[in-house]
Amino acid sequence: SGFNFGGFGLTANPAVNFNIGNFGVSTTSTPPFNFGNSLASAGAFGGFGTTTTTAGPAFSFSAPSNTGTSGLFGGTQNKGFGFGTSFGTGTGTGLGSGLGTGLGFGGFGTQQQQTTLGSGLFSQPAQTPAQSNQLINTASALSAPTLLGDERDAILAKWNQLQAFWGTGKGYFNNNIAPVEFTQENPFCRFKAVGYSLMPNNKDEDGLVVLVFNRKETDIRSQQQQLVESLHKILGGNQTLTVNVEGVKTLPDDQTEVIIYVVERSPNGTSRRVPATTLYAHFEQANIKSSLQQLGVSLSMARTELSPAQVKQLLQNPPAGVDPIIWEQAKVDNPDPDKLIPVPMVGFKELLRRLKVQDQMTKQHQTRLDIISEDISELQKNQTTTMAKIAQYKRKLMALSHRTLQVLIKQEIQRKSGYAIQADEEQLRVQLDTIQCELNAPTQFKGRLNELMSQIRMQNHFGAVRAEERYYIDADLLREIKQHLKQQQEGLSHLISIIKDDLEDIKLIEHGLNESIPIRGGVFS
User: Fold this and answer.
1) How far apart are CA 366 and CA 360, in angstroms?
2) Could you tell me which residues come within 8 angstroms of residue 259 by beta carbon, excluding any fewer than 6 positions away?
3) pLDDT value at 407 more than 90
4) How far apart are CA 342 and CA 87, in angstroms?
5) Residues in domain Nup54 C-terminal interacting (predicted)?
6) What pTM, to 2 d.p., does this model score?
7) CA-CA distance, 178 to 169, in Å (whole number)?
């Protein structure tokens, strides 16, 4: 058997050739293992994402009729397990795209990737001998274990592949070599995705340090003063230092995030904030860290922005187990490169943690929206009250204006008392008399105003009459009235029938009496 790893070029007997340059495996003879290429020989293992199967004892986790689709953990057309939606903040990028030509595992991404990776994680340079041995042992466990020496080794290889895909378990492949430990960081683990996290924008001079407490937010807020005093004692109780709380935020699993900063006052009266890196380094000392743990602190970190060099280094070096091409695609799909940075999500625990954080942030946003809604309602009430007061003040201003005008008129009359009417006053009087005559003319403004007033009164009268004629009967009440009238009608019908029967009886009695009277007369005579 021979192996040809993409970055190592180990070649042996060409009878069996494995090419793991792009995580795909191409086989030319049995017993082969294929991550995604079509197999033409009987008895081949279809793997995860085999597109073509042949008759024979083939062992496959994918549906044999899937043509051109991904395998067990692939896209939406697979009948097996599928993760087709995006997880994480922003645009999800599928990991594990194209293990071979047939397997296009989309991971937690939105679309399955069918691109074949030319150089996988195995082709990275600067591999140590221990890593090389680990790589060879992993390849042996996944492709050609020699533990039992019979056909059961092929089944064991399939089991090791499944464990590698899940990222858990041990891969046994040789009696003389320890088994390979499969973790979620191994390159074959399928449960990986890339999300995006918000980069902090605080400077080191701001001195913000985050402390995560294993306590509820209500407990932290109720004992905030005692917490500040305890942190001051941990810092040595120096009177020139003051501990301040910047913010308190709830985290999942009954944890609370407290952001603090320390102000240092100098003897000359000036003050400055202790840099975040300096404060964080002090908290990371062994004795200080143990004291913080006694307070319930599980994690501490400095909240400082990343320098351009740090961001560049993070983006240029893909995390362990993440293919460089997928990492490059994640950088391209970044919705806001200035504020967000791609981060790997490995395993369901990390996914669950991000989901809890997202739920927590959603609750906080909803709480903030409720507070804003209450503030808006209060402002609307205040606005209504203010508008009513403005209208009242306008009416009061109008009344005061009239009173002021009357006072001015009386004052002017008293001032002009005993003086003859001047020419301008006489001219003004003539103009006022002319306006008064025009207003009192029948065909002018006064007559038209009277006509409009009459029409308004008639419309109000007719409207009132029409409003009085309108009525409305409830449906249930109308039903009861109909039922009552129906019963009355039935009672009247029954009474009429009784009266008719009584009239017939009376007629019969009268007829009998008329026939008996002559007979009696003849007897008496």
Assistant:
1) 10
2) 208, 209, 210, 211, 245, 246, 247, 248, 249, 303
3) yes
4) 12
5) 471-509
6) 0.47
7) 13
Residue of 51, 95, 92, 54 whose CA lies nearest to 70 = 51
CA atoms within 13 A on the CB side of 476: 0
How far is Cα 448 from Cα 441, in angstroms, rounded to an integer? 10
* Cis check: omega of the bond before 31, within 30 degrees of 0: yes
Pull the structure tokens for residue 66.
């899937």
Radius of gyration of the chain (CA): 48
Reported for 25-34, long-range contacts at CB under 8 A and 24+ positions apart, including other chains, are: 25/100, 25/143, 26/100, 31/144, 31/154, 33/142, 33/143, 33/157, 33/158, 33/161, 34/100, 34/102
For β-strands 209-213 and 170-171, DSSP reports them as unpaired
300 phi/psi in degrees, rounded to 5:
-135, 145
Looking at 218-227, 383-392, 442-451, 454-463, which range is the least confident one? 442-451
3-state secondary structure 102-129: CECCCCCCCCCCCCCCCCCHHHCCCCCH
Q: What is the pLDDT of residues 220-279, one digit of tens each?
A: 889 889 999 999 888 888 888 999 999 898 888 888 999 999 999 888 888 899 999 999
Q: Tell whether the model's pLDDT for residue 166 goes beyond 90.
A: no
- The Cα–Cα gap between 504 and 491 comes to 20
Element (H, E) at 301: strand 297-302
Our CA dihedral for 375, 377, 382, 383, rounded to 10 degrees, sits at 110
C-alpha distances in Å from residue 258, one per residue of 231, 454, 462: 12, 76, 72
Whether pLDDT at 324 is above 80: yes
First CA to last CA across the chain, in angstroms? Answer: 155
In this structure, what token pair is assigned to residue 255?
Answer: 């944890």
pLDDT tens string 361-380: 899 899 999 999 999 999 99
In degrees and rounded to multiples of 5, residue 154 shows phi and psi of -65, -40
pLDDT for residue 349 is more than 70: yes
User: How many whole angstroms separate alpha carbon 134 and alpha carbon 140?
Assistant: 10
Angle, CA of 183, 189 and 193, to the nearest 5°: 115
Q: What are the CA-CA distances from residue 452 to residues 435, 446, 456, 459, 461 (Å)?
A: 20, 10, 6, 11, 14
Buried b / exposed e over 168-199, threshold 16 CB at 10 Å, is: ebebbbeeeeebbebebebbbbbbbbbbbeeb
Give me the phi and psi of 254, to 5 degrees please.
60, 40
CA distance 119 to 98: 12
Band of residue 123 on the pLDDT scale cut at 50, 70, 90: very low
* 439-453 as b/e: b if 16+ CB within 10 A: eeeeeeeeeeeeeee
CA-based torsion, 159, 164, 166, 172: positive or negative: positive
The burial of 520, by beta-carbon neighbours within 10 Å (0-12 exposed, 13-18 middle, 19 or more buried), is given as exposed
The residue count for the chain = 525
